[in-house]
Amino acid sequence: MRTQIAPSRTTRLVVLTVVGVIFLIPIVAMLEFSLRAGLDGGYNLGHWTAIFDPENERTYRNLFRGVTNSLILAVVTVVLMLILLVPTMVLVKLRLPRLERPLELICLLPITIPAIVLVVGLAPVYSVVARFFGANAWTLSFAYVILVLPYAYRAIQANLISVDVVTLAEAARTLGAGWGTVIARVIVPNLRRGMLAAAVISVAVVLGEYTIASLLNRINLQTAVVQVSRSDPYAAVIFALLALAFGFLLLFILGRSSRPSRRPS
Fold first, then answer.
1. Most Cβ neighbours (<10 Å): which of 116, 135, 202, 228?
2. How far apart are CA 221 and CA 145, in angstroms?
């Protein structure tokens, strides 16, 4: 019989320390750079306060517009992704198990296609989209749903495998529940962890996307940061740090929400 040797506490501590240092070094360097007072030396919060100074509103207007557009894109992308992916995966799991492999192939296909190739194919599509929905930045969410499909599918699929949705659905149907009730009140609550993970990953992808927005002439966080970095590199680094902090906050919320609630027996 094959025995598995778990890593010791020291080994895990060393690995976590090395990984933590690798992540912390660039973050600390960015923070140090954003606090520099200039060529005279020293550190202060001058660059941070300058961004939120009303007198500089015109200078950083495009940057705040990019932040707003990216947040709207993140929300719309997550909503569209969940509406499209969760019912489809549940339906395939319950009624059409033979289509699991084709569905997996379709969802994982975008990760194999470079973003520049996607833009070439999406450019004529967006010329039609602009006629019906306008050229607003939120329309990029249609393309971003395709980008996040591989990551969202894996997150939800991992949770879906651990839940016996067939038994849950049959039990609910036996008690007289309709398919809408089965999905909304029985299956979806059991997929909360996977859906939260898919949402966090999707938000991270949307906040970090640059190629599609740039080539389709839309303003989001990354395109605005690149534009501002040409005249004010401190502001670009500060907003990159804020985006990282927002991502860590989402991961913290995911971790807290995924923990089973402890109720007194």
1. 202
2. 17
Per residue in 104-147, pLDDT (tens digit) is 999 998 888 887 888 888 888 888 888 888 778 888 899 999 99
Q: For residue 256, what are its two tokens?
A: 């807290």
62-257: CATH, from 1.20.1260.10, 3.40.50.300, 1.10.3720.10, 1.20.1560.10: 1.10.3720.10
Asked if 128 contacts 59 with a C-beta cutoff of 8 angstroms, the reply is no
Is the torsion defined by CA of 114, 118, 123, 126 positive or negative? negative
Rounded to two decimals, what is the model's pTM? 0.82
Ordered by start, the domain boundaries in the chain are 62-257
Chain centroid to Cα 140, Å, comes to 14
Q: Can you tell me the distance from the alpha carbon of 163 to that of 167, in angstroms, rounded to the nearest whole number? A: 9
